Amino acid sequence: MKKVVLRFMVCSDLHYKTPDSIEKTRFEEGLRRLYAYADSQEYPTVDAVYIVGDFANAGLPEEMKLVKESLDSGLRPETIVNLSLASHEYHGPQKEEGARRQLFEIFGQEADTHRVIRGFHFISVTTTEGCRFRQPQLDFAARELAAAHADTPDKPIFFFQHPHPTDTVYGSIGWGEAALMPILVNYPQIIDFSGHSHAPINDPRSIHQEHFTSVGTGTFSYFELDEFDKIYKTFPTGYETAAQMQIVEAFDDGSVLIKPYDVITGQFFHEGWLVERPWDPDSFVYTREKRIREAQKPRFLPGAVLEAAQAEEGLRIVFDHADGGGEDVNDYVITIRNEKGIVERRFALWSPYYLLERPAKMEYTVPPLGSGSYTVTVKARGFWYNESEDRLETALTVAAR
What is the pLDDT confidence band of residue 399, given thresholds at 50, 70 and 90? Predict the structure, then answer.
């Protein structure tokens, strides 16, 4: 039976502000829960904590010192810590130059690092000019990846950057950076961890495989979702209830288990994503094409109910969640037609899939409609262009005011 030989935590976008900010409380609780989990396992060690940028909200030295205090009080001596800088650290009064100097003065760390931890290579690259990679960073990444590959060609290489590699994980279109891609694609054993977008890590699109494996790192501050057709714009209901981190375990056969963890509830979202042979792209199972092809369609369970009623503020719609067919539901499309069948309203609502503690039913109030008879329908959509074949439907009459 294979055994865990390495464990680390990776997160991003802490956005520390003040000593009493919720992000500080959440991150410190995350460290406590991380060690509690490790203590319950046969391999009881946390070997490293990697923080992938935007840990200081305004780039102020006092914010960085607060992060240092949390780490000093929360980490055990055997745990290595590594931080990346990004756009928010560069917001400080001394901009990028000052942030790089503060990283060394406060944390004793250079911006770009290459460590070997328990026989596994860890490479972290900090951005410049906000969230860009230029020649010094490209040269560093190319040189260190070549050395890591030569040393351990049949082991994963853990790579850390703040912006997502473009067109990989969820959030990487609006919040991605493509400059490193020509280098990264040469090494399929890379498992790349990135943040910046604040996209939830329990979104199944937060792991992506094609040329290598990409993983999103979430946020301890607030969610922002990377779709633009929703009634809420990009900030869904409950977006401020965010505290997520990835707990990563490597085994003695070179396989890796990535376990998305919700600090708010103290639970793993699921059993984890297993990367069996990171160095072999033919073994990849989290490819976009495969998941689109195999995705089940959401469906409403027997007894699911849609209710619509006139209220003072508009039309109140309440309905039961759909079953995602092995995954969560991404969103719901609500259509309201008048008695002639003409669409009066059509809009999409996110399912609260990013929360483990979520409302029992979906609710939304539509702005007032004119008097008359209407039909309301709801369809559920998954993450892979998979839409429910069934739908909920109800009729109502809106009285004249």
Answer: confident
Instruction: Please indicate, yes or no, whether the overall pTM of this predicted structure exceeds 0.85.
Output: yes
Reduced DSSP (H G I as helix, E B as strand, rest coil) percent helix, strand, coil of the chain, to 5: 20, 35, 45
The torsion of the CA quartet 161, 259, 294, 155, rounded to 10 degrees, works out to 60
Other beta carbons within 10 Å of 190: 25
Q: How far apart are CA 97 and CA 100, in angstroms?
A: 5
Rounded Cα gap, residues 178 and 141, in angstroms: 14
pLDDT higher than 90, residue 312: no
Sequence-distant (≥ 6) Cβ neighbours of residue 80 within 8 angstroms:
47, 48, 49, 115, 117
In whole numbers, what is the pLDDT of the chain averaged over residues? 96
Instruction: Give me the DSSP letters along 69-98.
Output: HHHHHH--TT-EEEEE--TTGGGSTTHHHH
Q: State pLDDT tens for residues 18-34.
A: 999 999 999 999 999 99
Amino acid of residue 240: E
Question: Helix (H) and strand (E) counts for the chain?
Answer: 6, 21
Residue with tokens 């059509």: 346
**Residue 78: exposed, middle, or buried by beta-carbon count in 10 A (0-12, 13-18, 19+)?**
exposed
Report the DSSP beta bridge partners of residue 299: 323
Side chain identity, residue 94: Q
Lowest mean pLDDT among 200-214, 242-256, 356-370: 356-370
Return the closest-CA partner of residue 270 out of 212, 219, 207.
207
309 contacts 315 by C-beta, under 8 angstroms:
yes
The number of angstroms, rounded, from the C-alpha of 366 to the middle of its chain's C-alpha atoms is 30
Distances (CA, A) of 120 to 8, 92, 157, 282: 11, 34, 7, 22
Which sign, positive or negative, has the C-alpha torsion 302, 202, 294, 277?
negative
Domains of the chain from N-terminus onward: 4-293 (3.60.21.10), 306-398 (2.60.40.10)
Q: How far is CA 266 from CA 45, 240, 243, 348, in A?
A: 19, 17, 10, 30
Residue among 281, 315, 278 nearest 394 (CA):
315
